[in-house]
Amino acid sequence: MREVQYPFLLSTWVKAEPMKGKKLAIVAACLPFVNKELFEKIARDDERVILLACPEKEPALHYGKIASMIRSVKPSLVEVYSIDGSPHCFTLHASVNEAEYILGEKVPRRHYVVVDGKELREISPDAVRVARYLHIVDEVIREKPELLKHLEKHSLEYKQAKRLSSEKR
Length: 169
What we know:
The protein has eight helices and five strands; from the N terminus they run βααβαβαββαααα. By secondary structure, the chain is α/β, with parallel strands linked by helices. α3 crosses α4. The longest helix has 17 residues, at about 85-105. It is globular. The model has no long low-confidence stretch (mean pLDDT about 90).
């Protein structure tokens, strides 16, 4: 059986007719590989136009492209689906928030992350905003160091950093 091919965000004309008034889903390009069933569930909605994106593979042009698409086709909703913990995927979320700022108008949107390759979880636009300001994140960690126990469940990088830190003592 042949796999359905989806276009990449940066390879799509901002005025493409199939996007007009539809839900626009910007999906991490690796999601079909990471969790095929979840991706297929997202893609099943006929009112949703899927655009794949990989900030690691593509140049950092998402901000302007997304803003132009929103202005040109007036989607009913913009959704972002990414892999939680990926520094590259994070920029997709930030790009949609930034598009609202660039346009100066409310953009109906929803942000989702796939936790540990399995669980789809909605996050708020404010979570994306806060994540851009590391001094605020640092304040929260200092006030609630127990949050790092959650990080340890998900981050291989954090586990290694802790191990390396304890070895140097």
